[in-house]
């Protein structure tokens, strides 16, 4: 699973000019599910994102997480994070999980964030959404659950 996490002052999702989800200070998580991803990937990302220290403390250091500040989370499914652009000009999405599988893992991810104590809003799966993001900082972090399996360099 891949997640693009953005620290925001506010964000919303609209479908056909109707706001269907909105948050104030917190994180927007654009999330894509790849073939072979599992509940272990969802659990890894949920824990990592809930505890990711990218909010400033009183010394202006990144020491606080969304949990620490009572931040909200807006989760938006984004299969395009699995784009393969190595060949040609048109991206290939063959590495993305089938829709039904992806939807289940994203719902699992959302439930894990809620279980951690976060207020979570979501976009709508398989819908054409307009996502308005007020990226604060800007702070944008890319997380791939496969990274947990690779050895860390010192």
Q: Would you give an account of this structure?
A:
The chain has 154 residues and is an alpha/beta fold. It has one domain (2-146): D-tyrosyl-tRNA(Tyr) deacylase (D-tyrosyl-trna(Tyr) Deacylase, Chain: A), CATH 3.50.80. Helices cover 21% and strands 37% of the residues. The protein has three helices and eight strands. It is globular and about 45 Å long. The two termini are 25 Å apart.
Concise summary:
The chain has helices spanning 39-50, 66-69, 99-115; strands spanning 2-15, 18-23, 26-32, 55-56, 62-64, 72-77, 119-122, 130-144.
Instruction: State the CATH superfamily name.
Output: D-tyrosyl-tRNA(Tyr) deacylase
Cα-based radius of gyration, to the nearest Å: 15 Å
Beta fraction of the residues?
A: 35-45%
Q: Major sheet, described briefly? A: 6 strands, mixed
Reading off the top of the CATH hierarchy, the class is best stated as Alpha Beta
Structural class: alpha/beta
In total, how many beta strands? 8
Shape: globular
Number of separate structural domains? 1
pLDDT averaged over residues: 95
Number of helices: 3
Low-confidence stretches: none
CATH architectural grouping: 3-Layer(bba) Sandwich
Q: What is the chain-wise order of helices and strands?
A: EEEHEEHEHEE
Q: CATH topology, anyone?
A: D-tyrosyl-trna(Tyr) Deacylase, Chain: A
* Overall helicity: 10-25%
Q: What is the straight-line distance between the termini?
A: 25 Å
């Amino acid at each position: 699973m891949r997640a693009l996490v953005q620290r925001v002052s506010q964000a919303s999702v609209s479908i056909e000019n109707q706001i269907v989800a909105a948050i104030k200070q917190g994180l927007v998580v654009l999330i894509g599910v790849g073939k072979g991803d599992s509940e272990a990937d969802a659990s890894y990302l949920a824990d990592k994102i809930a505890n990711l220290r990218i909010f400033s403390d009183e010394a202006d250091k990144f020491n606080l997480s969304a949990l620490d500040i009572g931040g909200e989370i807006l989760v938006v499914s984004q299969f395009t994070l699995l784009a393969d652009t190595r060949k040609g000009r048109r991206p290939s999405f063959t590495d993305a999980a089938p829709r039904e599988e992806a939807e289940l893992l994203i719902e699992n991810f959302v439930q894990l964030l809620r279980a951690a104590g976060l207020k979570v809003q979501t976009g709508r799966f398989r819908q054409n959404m307009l996502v308005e993001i007020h990226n604060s900082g800007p702070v944008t972090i890319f997380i791939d659950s496969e990274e947990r399996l690779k050895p860390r360099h010192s």
